[in-house]
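stage 2 :: seqdesign
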């Protein structure tokens, strides 16, 4: 159908080609981009060096997705790894008041040492007995300090491996089309790409008051024994 309006982004599903049971839903997106790049050279000749032929090669296509929200799966797609339940040691900080030359933490420390800072960033050494950290040469009782210590947490862990690269996926994307004269939905639009690999590049900015995002850019290739990147499908309603 022609003379229609596409004004919504695509909802996107990724299916792991190696492990088809692994499907990721990238539905709430702010933007999706479908880009085709074609290298063209004009062949010229004769008197006046006239253009006689267009030599076209290097047909390339890309598909990019800007998800609205952050997600563990996005890290896995970018890094080529998967998350698994496990434990890890992290640094934990708490703001506490000194009492009797010590502070009592809420969390569970690992090890016996702690580092403590006062309001002017003067550093103190703390030694744990259970959850109580005795401070060497402590500041006055009642002083607010920040204590930093090691603690063990349990959660989903994604290893950021230097020897792993993004996997290949099938992309299934869907949006809707409108008829301008009635403002009604008249058509579903689908994009199926048979083989897509995330370029793995990441630039995440964490700034106060601004949402952190992880855009994904996929390079499209043709499967073995196929000349097609995929399909563009329209279905009237």
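stage 2 :: out
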């Amino acid at each position: 159908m022609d003379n229609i309006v596409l004004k919504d982004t695509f909802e996107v599903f990724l299916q792991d080609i190696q492990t088809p049971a692994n499907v990721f839903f990238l539905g709430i997106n702010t933007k999706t981009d479908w880009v085709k790049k074609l290298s063209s050279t004009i062949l010229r000749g004769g008197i006046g060096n006239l253009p006689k032929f267009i030599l076209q090669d290097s047909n390339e296509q890309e598909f990019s997705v800007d998800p609205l929200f952050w997600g563990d799966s996005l890290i896995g797609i970018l890094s080529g790894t998967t998350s698994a339940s496990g434990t890890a040691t992290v640094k934990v900080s708490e703001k506490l008041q000194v009492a009797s030359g010590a502070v009592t933490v809420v969390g569970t420390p690992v090890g016996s040492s702690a580092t403590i800072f006062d309001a002017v960033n003067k550093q103190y050494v703390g030694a744990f007995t259970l959850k109580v950290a005795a401070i060497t040469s402590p500041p006055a009782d009642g002083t607010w300090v920040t204590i930093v210590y090691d603690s063990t947490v349990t959660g989903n862990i994604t290893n950021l491996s230097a020897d792993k690269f993004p996997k290949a996926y099938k992309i299934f994307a869907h949006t809707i089309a409108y008829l301008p004269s009635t403002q009604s939905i008249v058509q579903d639009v689908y994009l199926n790409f048979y083989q897509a690999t995330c370029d793995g590049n990441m630039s995440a900015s964490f700034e106060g008051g601004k949402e952190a995002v992880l855009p994904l850019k996929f390079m499209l290739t043709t499967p073995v024994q196929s000349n097609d990147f995929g399909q563009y499908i329209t279905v009237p309603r």
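stage 3 :: structure notes
- The mean pLDDT is 95.
- The CA atoms of residues 108 and 200 lie 36 Å apart.
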